[in-house]
Predict the structure.
Amino acid sequence: METETAQISESQQEQSVQLEISGQVAVLRLGTPDERYVTITPARMESFEQALAQLEGNTAVKGVVIIGSGPGLFCAGADINQISGVTEVSVAKSLASRGQSLFQRVAELKCTTVAAISGACVGGGYELALACDYRIASDTNEVRVGLPEINLGIIPGFGGSVRLPRLIGLPAALDIILKGRMLPAKRGLKAGLVDELIRSDGTSDKGYTALEARAKEIALGGPKPKQKSIALGEKLLTFTGIGRKMVAKEARKKAHKATGGHYPAPPRAIDVATRALGMNIKQALDIEAQALAELIITPESKSLVHVYFLTEEAGKRWKSMKDEVEGAKVAVLGAGTMGAGIAASLLGSGLDVLLVDLDDKARNRAAAHIEESLGKRFKYDAARAKSSFEHLKLDGSIDSITDAALVIEAIVEKLDVKKQVFGQLASLLPSSAILASNTSSLPISEIASDLSNPERVIGMHFFNPAEKMPLVEIVRSSQTDHRSIAFTAALASKLGKYPVVVEEVPGFLVNRILSPYLAEAAWALGDGYSIVDIDRAAVQFGMPMGPLRLLDEVGLDVAAHVAEIMSSSYGNRMETPPFTAKLASLGRLGRKSGKGFYVYEGKNGSPDPQLKDLLDLPDEPPETEPEELRDRLIMSMVNEAIRCFDEAVAGTPCRDAAGQIDLATIMGIGFAPFRGGIMRYAESVGARELLERTEKLHDRHGARFVPASGLKARAASGNASFYEPIEGSSTIQ
Ligand code: NAI
């Protein structure tokens, strides 16, 4: 066997591809055996180009297998660092064109080409697979196929927007591209993204050898995989001008509804995928490269790349604790709304859970909820749902918690009750066990105040619904030790969530930033703005839902209670008008009672016209500039976020702290991802303009808008960055 390493230099050996030619079959491995994460870098492209040159000149080769460098690997796409640095359309276009022409050369090889996929084959990796004649994959959990580029504010630009619609039809391809889907093996087969699955044969290489063998068989002219054909209706919608027009129109409408028109990539993806079908490959690739290039430099894409790096980093940050968390026994105390959700999340991630509640009914309700939740989570894998559920144990007594590495308490929000159960837990468990509370408002140091080892007490603040919400605030007191922080944060990462470490200030980080915004919505209502106008102003800015709708979702009783705590902790700037409390006292608790600010007869509810009389609201809003309402809502959050940054509520005030606040606001509040989080938004507006807007609001609305000292300091020092600490700000280290 002849083995060539299409090599550029020794230092770039890592990023090369390996070409092995054995008789009539060539195998192109997309990396070296040591590489665990293969991306498309310029060095790898160069190596690939050299390998292709050898194949193009070799008439003896009848088939080529393109495969990852080992079990569980293929190619995870373009190197995102390359994308983030590009600021010129011409540079971006030449990057795209280079990738396209490389894959076009694969498509034009005279022999049979087979992509053999045993790991992540996404983005540019899947675009390479699309350029092959066949795609086969191992039937293992590691496999993912799809095109996630839209999540970075761009479109597939190495031929994916052109080839996928031709392979599976336009409607199905748009579904993958616009949702950025990355499908597991079986669903990839069903959708036609792969042509055949190779059963893992139970060998330690997870079927990698069997996959390669089958790919070679196909490459040498053996039995071909049966490719999914496009149904007749889909063909008409794909390969006729009128059909494409219909699909594009519908897709544009849907995309606009889903994104509020804030993201330029979806309409562009629809345009390219649709028009490309009526063009030859050269023209089609050209419009794809142009669109990608123009999208790469948009602020929306830069913000989404910022978010991508934050999420990647969050996953890696607590890796040193990974082994300790693996297989850890966790007990959850309290099987109500939160306890059940937290238990479901733990079980779904493969952990054993003991769930304890005094109340039989609560335990039964929780068990039913957890079973349903796991069923939904593993809707394509009933056996996994069942086996995860079997790892749940229920008990009615706290005394059953004797050997947990971590207890997560989610009982009533009462300090004396929590203190009592923490005392019991401390005596039941060895001192190595970590005791976490899901409290949303109580100080961790007070919960731990009677314990002899308060360093193991911490807050793990999940959001509701705990199975779905991606943020966990890891709340530390001044006594909490590093091990407890690292363990709980690593556990949150294991659950697929983003842990952000915060101080135990009232409201912690997220509710502290959110509270003035919710209060401001109520003040605006009192000034005569309509429910529709208030919620629309927030949604138009990019929030996932308006503040009054959010209050209804949270529950007006809960919201009124939190508002009271916040205004007594922070004074004037978090004062709330009495509307929420009044509605709650009338039994209008929001969605859960069928009425709040909205009336819920249909699924979405509609604003309640009776509210005007009920709350004695003015008939008309005040006459102000059109942006005032939006500014009132958004600046109330931004001003508080700057205070949190300067007070080091999320880590020390450095680049990373701003990133942590960005991550928390996106994952906890849904703060417009295309703006990259609240601190990045503040940075994009600039301190001077923010101060100007806040001062204007301060003049009109008083104490709620006293500008943060850090905002004033930055504006005074010439728009200094929020991503850097500043002298004179009230920083607590
Ligand atoms: P819940 O009222 O739905 O459930 C509490 C459960 O704890 C009940 O089933 C009750 O029987 C049980 N319980 C009470 N005392 C107990 C004890 N001594 N031993 C064992 N079980 C006991 O409450 P929910 O909403 O789940 O809240 C729990 C905690 O999570 C609270 O601290 C709350 O502030 C916090 N939280 C709530 C959120 C929410 O949206 N509901 C969001 C984030 C945090």
